[in-house]
Amino acid sequence: MDELSPHAARLRAAMAGPQPDAGRSGGLWSACAQLTPGELGALLPAAYRTLADESAPDHARRVARAK
C-alpha cells in the first residue's frame, strides 16, 4: 500500500521524525481511530523498526507501542 490516508501518513511520520503536536484536539491520537485495518497493517513494519531501534525518540516509541 503506497498511498496512505493523511491519518496513516501522520502516524508513520511520528514514528520516524520530530515529535508532532499530539496533545491538541484533533491531533495525532485522534487519527488512530480513523485508520483502516489495511493501513494498520501497512504501518506495522515501521512500528516494529521503531520498537527495535533503541536510539528512537521516546515519542516515536510511544506511538509505535500504541499501534
Summarize the structure in short.
The protein has helices spanning 6-16, 28-32, 37-52, 58-66.
Number of helices: 4
As a percent range, the share of strand residues is under 5%
The backbone outline, from C-alpha atoms, is globular
How far the N terminus sits from the C terminus, by CA atoms, comes to: 17 Å
Find the structural class using helix and strand composition.
Answer: mainly alpha
- SSE topology string: HHHH
Using only CA atoms, what is the Rg? Answer: 11 Å
Average the pLDDT over all residues and give the rounded result: 78
Helix content: 55-70%
Largest sheet: none
- List segments where confidence is low: pLDDT < 50 over at least 5 consecutive residues: none
Question: Could you please describe the fold and organization of this structure?
Answer:
This protein is 61% helix and 0% strand. It is mainly α and 67 residues long. The model has no long low-confidence stretch (mean pLDDT 78). The radius of gyration is 11 Å and the shape is globular. It is built from 4 helices and no strands. Helix 1 packs parallel to helix 3 (37-52), helix 1 packs across helix 4 (58-66) and helix 3 packs antiparallel against helix 4 (58-66).
Q: What structural keywords apply?
A:
67 residues; mainly alpha
List strands and helices in order, with pairings.
Elements: H1 6-16, H2 28-32, H3 37-52, H4 58-66
